[in-house]
Amino acid sequence: MFKEKYKHMIDQVHPSDELVCDVLKSAHSRNKKKNVLISSFRKPVTAIIAICICMFLAIPILAATLEPIYQLMYVVSPGIAQFFMPVQKSDENKGIKMEVVSAYIHGNVAEIYITMQDLTGDRIDGTTDLYDSYSINRPFDSSASCQRVGYDEKTKTATFLISITEWGNQKITGDKITFSVKEFLSHKKNYSDVGIPLDLSLVTTAKDTQKVYTTGGGGKDYQTYVDEGKAIVLTPSQATAGFPVDGIDLTGIGYIDDKLHVQMALNDRLKSDNHGSFYLKDTNEKKVECNYNIYFTNQYEHQEDRIDYCECVFDIPQEKLGNYSLYGDFVTSGMLTEGNWRVTFPLEQAK
Fold first, then answer.
1. Which domain holds residue 89?
2. Distance between CA 277 and CA 247 in Å, rounded?
3. What SS3 state is found at 155?
4. Alpha carbons 62 and 9: distance in angstroms, whole number
5. Residue 351 belongs to a domain
6. pTM for this predicted structure
7. Does the CA dihedral 321-322-324-327 come out positive or negative?
8. Order of strands, edge to edge, in the sheet holding 275-281?
9. What pLDDT, in 10s, does the model give residues 238-264?
10. What is the average pLDDT across 26-31?
């Protein structure tokens, strides 16, 4: 539907052969008349031809601009790409242009393709993350997901597919809808299979522990060891020197109730989304994931000295821990860009 719509637009702007012949004959027949008449006639004829040429040239350029997005849509969502309706409305703030390219509204789900382009610098790159700062102006609670589906280095443009589902099966209705973005992260760095320089045979039972309210977590044993949002964790200690990833610190390791706990501090997480996970490898390089992890913080206010923590818990007997080595995967971000990008477009439910 998307492609056919623009093909139809292109087809409509070709002047017919009959129109071209009529215009040329009219111009030729008047060459023998007085100069004043020639001048008065050529102006509208020239204007008609110029308009036709401009329309003919402009719309293929528009279609060429949309073609990469169209191709991405069929790669990412081949089954429903034809249902997306073109929007092409944009907003610019702080030299960043956000464009809502197309949308597919069906029932209680809004699926939206957008692009973010840096017009003045290099704040947009192939790692750009909208950081859960996007929303639609609806009175109901919703869940959402965002997938970066493409990046054009030449134009510094990142393309995203965003899916927003309203809870309670509330159908998205109305004449129009507003989509907004408040901030994004970029220049992210990925650290994979990073060896942590620790002799695990020296790990002992933890001396200091605390009960905290969790801010998140997961894993197969999470529900077993987290009771009403509270869990026992290591009390953070001074950061271990020489940790190989900037923005993340190792702040504790020890046994609690026969389970190995390994704790990291995620510095400035609210502005950087720094995160990671620990895992073990045995002497045969076999990877052992944690049984569960817990997130918590030293305070719940968004203050400058807030520190977020992630604690990974393993079910490895203490007497066998010397046969393992500690590794981790981590992600850090180098730039947070804040702004206010907002686009309102007509709402058209798919039929």
1. 81-189+337-346
2. 14
3. coil
4. 10
5. no
6. 0.70
7. positive
8. 134-136, 176-195, 325-346, 275-281, 287-289
9. 999 989 999 999 999 999 999 999 999
10. 42
